[in-house]
Amino acid sequence: MKKIFILFVIIIGGSFTTFGQTGSPIFDNFISKLDSIQKQYSQYYDKGEYKKTEASLREMLKLTDNLELPAEDMTKYKISLASIKANTYYNLACTYSLLNKKKEAVNAFEKAIEASYSEYRHAKADADLDNIRKEKKFIALLNQIKQFDKLFILQNSNKYQKENTDSLPQFTYQSTDNRNLKEVRTFFNLDSVAGNGDEVSKIINILNFAHNTIKHNGNNFALCEFDAIDIYNYNKSTGKGVNCRHLAIALNEMYLSMGFSSRYVTCMPKNPDDPDCHVINTVYSTQLQKWVWVDPTFNAYVKDENGNLLSIAEVRECLIANKPLVLNEDANWNNISKQTKEYYLDNYMAKNLYWIQCIDYSRFNPESRYRKNENKYIALLPVGFEFDLPDGIITPKYVTHDPDYFWQAPQNNN
């Protein structure tokens, strides 16, 4: 059963988050009431009191259906309301299934889909729906939403291709001689953080440090300069987390300050109406002679079945080819919720690896809030794909379909 209802997502170069204050008193009051009923529902569900669970869900649907908002707000919150309704009907389908009310369960599942429910992989595996799994109408409905499965979409994307990239800029990396990077290294005592082990252990230790030191909040666009020291000080002085983009920028500067070539990478979905993306890092290991996937939001890195660390490109290829992937055991969000390979890779990152982009020059404070930026954004797209960007995402200046160019090994620092 999917027990998270309020998935209001804001694209601020970050990932999804649960809903917060919106600026609309009517909508905020609605969310507050809905949250109260949701907590009741969760308690009933956990105790197996499914008739009471059903009543709570019906109350949530009634509250949603009776919500009256100004036309402007109705447009603004249209996606959020659809998500709330879809998830409520989905959970109602689960409840009816658990009560062995098969007809009602299938009908509720159909209404969930009509409201926008599209989580094929979740519905396929959810044990709460086992009582209706052999129902012909349920099978047809499940097949109907397979086209929206995140991994299915990625696996059906067009391939990349080799092409002439002579006119495109080279990717370069700021030198450790830079005064600001020296300050980052000293401020965080990164030599001690990295430890005395081999290069790979240093990469992982710095990842762990960034994850454990700077809190994540995908719904917060930090009021500070976007460099590692200011981001850290903002988090510590306000207690507020920062979104995944700013967390990745902070980690990127830590790596650069220690002499590692590193980029922060914006990972994008295919659907232009999806306001959620995710930003992670890739760091070059001279020990392994390859780029390595690191994600400070979830303290995540990825290996193959033989224990080899993988790059972003390799993870994407493995997802498309259905090859085994292993997520590190301590992958988590804010040291609160554990991440699983099934959710993090097969669902969330499969969605957000459809196309990607980076800046050409990886450096200190690359996206300053207060200073003019001269970044050249470069996107790697599948052949034939044309993006339609949601608000808040910077339009890339250059586009390539050539992964060899995009993932070229570091040539020099500046």
What is the gyration radius calculated from CA atoms? 23 Å
Indicate the low-confidence ranges by residue numbers: 3-21
Tertiary shape: globular
Report the helical percentage: 40-55%
The tally of beta strands, per DSSP, is 12
**Tally of DSSP helical segments:** 16
> What portion of residues belong to β-strands?
5-15%
Oligomeric nature of the chains: single chain
Q: What is the rounded distance between the termini?
A: 52 Å
The biggest beta sheet is recorded as: 6 strands, mixed
Structural commentary:
This protein has 414 residues and is α+β, with helices and mostly antiparallel strands. 43% of the residues lie in helices and 11% in strands. The chain has helices spanning 25-47, 50-65, 71-76, 78-98, 102-115, 120-125, 136-144, 150-155, 179-187, 190-194, 199-213, 228-238, 244-257, 312-321, 341-351, 403-406, and strands at 172-173, 262-268, 278-285, 290-294, 302-303, 326-327, 332-333, 337-338, 355-359, 361-362, 377-380, 398-400. The strands form four sheets. A six-stranded mixed beta sheet has the order 4-3-2-9-11-12. Strands 1-10 form a two-stranded parallel sheet. Helix 4 (78-98) packs antiparallel against helix 5, helix 9 (179-187) packs across helix 13 and helix 12 packs across helix 13 (244-257). The radius of gyration is 23 Å and the shape is globular. Residues 3-21 have low confidence and may be disordered.
